[in-house]
Design brief:
Elements lengths: L16 E7 L4 E7 L13 E15 L2 E5 L4 E4 L6 E16 L6
Antiparallel strand pairs: 1-2, 2-6, 3-4, 3-5, 3-6
Pfam families: Cupin_2
Protein name: Cupin domain
Organism: Kribbella amoyensis
Length: about 100
């Protein structure tokens, strides 16, 4: 058993911050923070992702459309799918689960 203290807690960074809290052979877990008014400039990943919104509000945009998101929302993103957070109105903190582990391109 491993406890991930501080996972999902907003960490202010300019402009964004990703901190990995766990890596195994099959997945990785980290916290992605985007400040209010920030721009999410990420590119598609080779890994599948699950985002859990722990704090903040934004709009999540994919080729299929846009959805407002807030605390408690869970989002699945297939590998290679274009996606980003826009209209970040409150400091946004997301638990991010990657499978396989995030490669960082």
């Amino acid at each position: 058993m491993q406890k991930l203290s501080g996972a999902g807690v907003f960490e202010h960074a300019d402009p964004n911050n990703y901190v990995e809290q766990l890596r195994t052979s099959s997945l990785s877990v980290g916290t992605y923070s985007i400040p209010a008014g920030g721009v999410d400039d990420q590119a598609p990943h080779h890994e599948e992702e699950i985002y859990v919104v722990t704090t903040g509000r934004a709009t999540f945009v994919t080729p299929d459309g846009a959805e407002p998101v807030g605390p408690g929302d869970v989002l699945f993103v297939a590998a290679e799918e274009e996606h980003r957070f826009t209209d970040v109105t409150e400091d946004l903190a997301l638990l991010v689960f990657f499978a396989p582990p995030y490669s960082g391109r």
